[in-house]
Structure formats: structure tokens, C-alpha cells
Design goal:
This protein is α+β, with helices and mostly antiparallel strands. 15% of the residues lie in helices and 30% in strands. The protein has 3 helices and 6 strands, in the order βββαβαββα. The strands form 2 sheets. The chain has a 4-stranded mixed sheet, covered by helices on one side. The chain has a two-stranded antiparallel sheet with strand order 1-2. A hairpin with a 2-residue loop joins strand 5 and strand 6. It starts with a strand and ends in a 14-residue tail after the last helix.
């Protein structure tokens, strides 16, 4: 809401956000440890056993949640707008910080000093 107010000869404009709130149902996806990530990976069945994370990346992740149930995740977390697999999401504290359809991009995000040294396991 924008309110224009005039006092004497001065006119001012104020912007108020009333009732604006967006809540996400991320409760189970938030990290337990301050400064560490929770990783949600929604992948096709053949990819589930092939996800490898370098040890340096594993140390940054306090929880990992993997599923092949795209319909279930869409129903549980519609605000993530996951349309296809693979879909990877990194949460830190109270926020979704990074998302990608490439496992390799997740590794690159966690290990920028080792950018590109991974094998991208994205199913094509």
C-alpha cells in the first residue's frame, strides 16, 4: 500500500507492506547445525545409488534427504516448484540457498575451489 501525505507544502510518500508474508513448509528441510547445509535430492530411481559427494562437500552437509518420489515431494513442498528430476536443493539455516538440476553444479557450489573437478551425474 502506498500512502501520500501532505504537511504544509511538503508532500511525502510512504510505502507500507501490510499482511505480506510468505511461509514455506521447510521445517523438515532446515539444517540442524548453524552454518551447515541440508541437501534435498529428488532423483530418478537409476540415479539414487550413484550420487557421490567428495569428502570436503560432505563436511558442509549436516543432513541429506534423497527421494525418487517426485509426486510426493511436489505435494509436500509445492513452493519448491520441482517439475522434473534430478532436482537438488541446498538449505542453510532458514533459507533455500541453492538449487540445480545438476549434481555436478551442487558439488561446484559447495567446493568452488575445485570447480569442474567432478563428474556430472545428471541423467539425460
Amino acid at each position: 500500500m502506498i500512502v501520500r501525505v501532505k504537511w504544509d507544502e511538503r508532500e511525502a510518500e510512504y510505502i507500507f507492506l501490510i499482511g505480506v508474508s510468505q511461509r514455506f513448509n521447510y521445517g523438515k528441510l532446515l539444517s540442524d547445525n548453524h552454518g551447515s547445509y541440508l541437501l534435498l535430492a529428488v532423483v530418478p530411481e537409476p540415479m539414487m545409488g550413484t550420487l557421490n559427494m567428495p569428502e570436503q562437500g560432505q563436511r558442509q552437509i549436516s543432513k541429506m534427504r534423497g527421494t525418487t518420489d517426485l509426486d510426493g515431494i511436489q505435494a509436500q513442498y509445492p513452493e519448491l516448484n520441482i517439475q522434473e528430476t534430478p532436482s537438488c536443493h541446498l538449505f542453510i539455516e532458514r533459507n533455500l540457498e541453492f538449487q540445480s538440476q545438476s549434481w555436478g553444479e551442487v558439488i561446484d557450489y559447495l567446493l568452488p575451489d575445485k570447480f569442474g573437478e567432478h563428474i556430472d551425474l545428471r541423467v539425460r
